[in-house]
Amino acid sequence: MTTEKMVDAQRADVQIADEMTDLEMTDAEIAYPPMADAKVVGEISNRRVVAVGAALFGICAAGVTYGFLGGDEPEERPVPTASVTYRITGTGNADVSYLARSSEGSATVEAGVELPWKKTVRVPLGKDPAVSIQLGRKGGEASCAVAVRGEHRQRATAFGSYGRATCTAELPTRERPEAERSEAERSEAESR
User: Fold this and answer.
1) What is the pLDDT of residue 192?
2) What is the DSSP string of 57-99?
3) Which of residues 11 and 134 earns the better pLDDT score?
4) What is the mean pLDDT of residues 18-25?
5) Residues 96, 100, 106, 108, CA torsion sign
6) CB–CB of 90/142 below 8 Å?
7) pLDDT > 70: percent of the chain
8) What is the dihedral of CA 180, 185, 189, 192, to 10 degrees?
9) pLDDT for the residue numbered 172
10) Residue 89's pLDDT is what?
11) CA distances from 181 to 8, 71, 129 (A)
């Protein structure tokens, strides 16, 4: 396109714009409904947007915090225990079963143990420590004893062929206050 044609096109555009301005109506010529009846529909104030955004942010932050800190699984705490000493005296062999540390306080069995025998284990509080002996076919004599936190609790004796004896004690379901503990219990607690 040449410069003359461009200038002519621009003049035509200006002329059309002037004619359109002449055709436009003024505000006075247009009939508007009264302002008192006018309603604003669909507008949301800035305050409402900020409030909704803050609420959504708070909900998301709470969810993330719960995911990191709360979780569905409770934290596993160690089971409180007490020191228990099982002792079997005598000669020969015997089958021995005793209660030792586990969350259930399950029994452990040792077959054909050479006597004398001694074992110190940890037993969950609330579970009663026990040791059982069973003599073999040859029989004989053997005694069991249980000590809790260094304090003797029970003694029993098995006699004869396949003789049996069981020694038990009772453990509290929770730790006793410091003032109620014996000297042996306090020193054991300090060594843990």
Assistant:
1) 47
2) HHHHHHHHHIIIII-SSPPPPPPPEEEEEEEEEESSEEEEEEE
3) 134
4) 56
5) negative
6) yes
7) 59
8) -160
9) 78
10) 94
11) 111, 38, 19
